[in-house]
Design brief:
Number of domains: 1
Protein name: Gx transporter family protein
Pfam families: Hpre_diP_synt_I
InterPro entries: Hpre_diP_synt_I (IPR014535), Hpre_diP_synth_I (IPR010898)
Organism: Candidatus Flavonifractor intestinigallinarum
Oligomer: single chain
Strand content: under 5%
Number of helices: 6
Keywords: Membrane, Transmembrane, Transmembrane helix
Helix content: over 70%
């Protein structure tokens, strides 16, 4: 198999996994534990962290964009694309930068990614609504990102260090 076909296949498999995780977590909202509308654990972020650590930033970006686009199309909510893409891109950028710092674990990187994702979504809401009112929602979201980021960070450590992806090029 050629190198480009191998990369395409690998990215497609990871995109499908991220999309499946995103859809699955939408079936079990966290509003039972935290009374914040729209709060999610961020399981699709596991694939982003994995791609950043095991593949390349470019492949992680393409997987993220494909997941956001397909998720919006499957969910029938193109407005959600603005929120998921803004949050996802900010989280990806923050995590990519933090992964370069020595001594910072995937646990910390994932928590920062969760906080960045929530911040990106609030910024998108402010742009869409044209008012700063969504900022009121940011502090509780950032507190929740400590928990959600910690959960996905712990799972990321297991995935990145224990699950090799065959055919890495």
């Amino acid at each position: 198999m050629s190198v480009s076909l191998q990369r395409l296949t690998r990215s497609a498999v990871l995109t499908a996994l991220a999309l499946a995780l995103s859809v699955a977590e939408g079936l079990a909202p966290l509003t039972i534990l935290f009374p914040l509308p729209g709060l999610r654990l961020g399981l699709a972020n596991l694939v982003t962290v994995y791609a950043l650590c095991r593949l390349s930033g470019r492949e992680a970006l393409l997987i993220l964009i494909a997941r956001c686009l397909l998720g919006s199309l499957l969910g029938g909510n193109l407005m959600a694309l603005a929120f998921s893409l803004t949050g996802g891109l900010l989280a990806l950028g923050v995590m990519a930068l933090l992964l370069r710092l020595p001594g910072l674990s995937l646990f910390g990187v994932s928590i920062a990614g969760a906080a960045a994702h929530n911040t990106g979504q609030i910024l998108a809401a402010m742009v869409v609504l044209g008012i700063p009112a969504p900022l009121v929602y940011l502090p509780p979201l950032l507190l929740c990102s400590l928990v959600t980021g910690a959960v996905t960070g712990g799972a990321s450590i297991l995935l990145v260090h224990r699950v090799p992806f065959p055919g890495k090029v």
